[in-house]
User: Fold Inositol 2-dehydrogenase from Pirellulimonas nuda.
Amino acid sequence: MDPSAPIDHVSRRRFLGAASATAGLAGMGLAAMAAPAGAQPAGSRQSGAKRPGPNDQVVAGFIGCGIRFHELINGATQFGPAAVVCDLDDVQLGRGLQSAMDAHNTHRYPMGIEHCRDYRRVLDRSDLDVVVIATPDHWHTKLAIEAMRAGKDVYCEKPLTLTIAEGAAIEKVLGETGRVFQVGTQQRSDFGKRFANAAAIVRDGRVGKVNHVTCGIDGSMTCPPLPTTDAPREFDFQTWLGQTPVVPYCAGAKIQTSGYGAGVPFSRTHNFFRWWYEYAGGKLTDWGAHHVDIALWATQPPLDKPFTLDPLMVEHPVPFENGMPTVHDRFNCATKFKCRVTFADGLVLDVCDEAPDLGFGNGIMFQGSEGRMFVNRGKLTGKAVDQLKEKPLPEDALEKLYGKKPPTSHMGDFVECVKNGGKTVSDVTSHNAHLNVCHAVNIALRLNRKLTFDPAAMKFTGDDQATSFVARKQRKGFEIGA
Assistant:
């Protein structure tokens, strides 16, 4: 398939695939309830002429119906209907369509929801205000850039990028188009403002001068060797590969029993894409994109100046040579690791799978001259937290942190900015600066040597091999920006 071809020129194979998708959905009793291709939802508004007003609904299109979609559809439909859902897998698409219809039923929206495999159908719709991207990481940048150029505001799941270079490409197009963009690092807004309060406590000096932060982010999953097999007939695996190299589909009989992958056989795709460097960055761009983001949001080291990365320990589930896995039939992201990042102002950030010496697994430990403070999604503890009873934070502490009134929710903040303008809580620039630390850590882990990264030059000082990981060769027909 040539994704740059006009959407009206559909090959016979793709036409039959689309027909098969509709037939499969009809078999699940869904097609009759969904709108035909190209349909506009009842009461929809033509976008582009002006932004939705304060009392207008925000019409959304969704690309990707996997593990994050079902939470996002519930969040977005609080503010308006879903016009269209899109996925390359008919099974996921059917589940996504059902979730969208359930959300419409909850909010009493009309049931005119289109379903499609081709993301260009989403971008070509004139009635959409926003596009919500919940695909695997290696598709984020291409979709985000094309959505902005199509005149849509964008909510994109984290991590925003697969490589450091992709972040610069998104920032360039964002500057050209002036669209509103929210990255899905929802720890900045949600979870009872627990992480925001931790950041505000640090910025208010309550733990003194912070000299050391440790982020425990868990280790990536492992799996047994996965045999090569045919991709499921209802899944367009070749398109799913996108910019990445063409490889055979592989899947095993073993089924993960808990977590994101529960009930699904191990494979390269869907719930397990995170554990392949080809498509993601393992735990560094999963939990690291959350916890490292909060650590740097709180401490504000100089991210425009060079910083060093020292991989103190790393274990990968397969052998590596020159930073590349040499075995290709199983997950390959780091399972155990500890990398020490030292910034120009002296702040030390340890990123590890767990921190037994500090007594925790997943979470963030701030160590300052006035004591320690720990935060994760379950708790916020430390002397500085206890002292809030006698000496609360200033009333405007969160407002200063956010640079505006604290948002009610992450999706709510996005919608507010779509309607009224302004910078989102998780803006592209700050997210990229923080995520690039995670990308740089991954490169140090893969090469297993000490590196110095220069953010301004976007290269590793004196190390051409490390710099070669800043960008990747993209498969013809799936180039970013093409």
